């Protein structure tokens, strides 16, 4: 059997008007690493993959068809947010993102479920949420702190 590239069961794709600039910016701001870049005969980006953490993977592409668009092309609208786990120093991660030009509408804050998170928007308007586990919380503690009923707590 031929050797294949290892990929997680779910891999999100994000689309940019300028995917080359996005690759550079995602490296600088969030510390993502390019692991695959495929170009066509004209040097246009055909496909790219970036790794984050030990097992995170994201595809970064262009607006290659009518049904894909950057938030920058559709008035800043998002149909999803991307949540990324950070293993350490969430506050330093946020500072790095800000220094690279990320808009940070919600700075690092402790959450009722035991994570410390922040939200950042990239130059084309994609919304990213970064979280670091800072304490173990039971379902009962999370329900009490939030006032919500929670099913399926892990």
Short description:
By secondary structure, the protein is of the alpha/beta class. The protein has helices spanning 19-30, 90-99, 139-146; strands at 13-16, 33-39, 45-52, 56-62, 82-85, 103-110, 115-121, 127-133.
Q: Low-confidence parts lasting 5 or more residues at pLDDT below 50?
A: none
SSE-based structural type: alpha/beta
| Distance between the ends | 37 Å
Task: Give average pLDDT, whole number.
Answer: 94
Beta content comes to: 25-35%
List the total number of helices.
3
Main beta sheet, described? 4 strands, mixed
Helix amount, in percent? Answer: 10-25%
Strand order, largest beta sheet: 1-4-3-2
Beta strand count: 8
Rg of Cα set: 17 Å
Helix/strand order = EHEEEEHEEEH
Overall 3D shape: globular
Oligomeric assembly? single chain
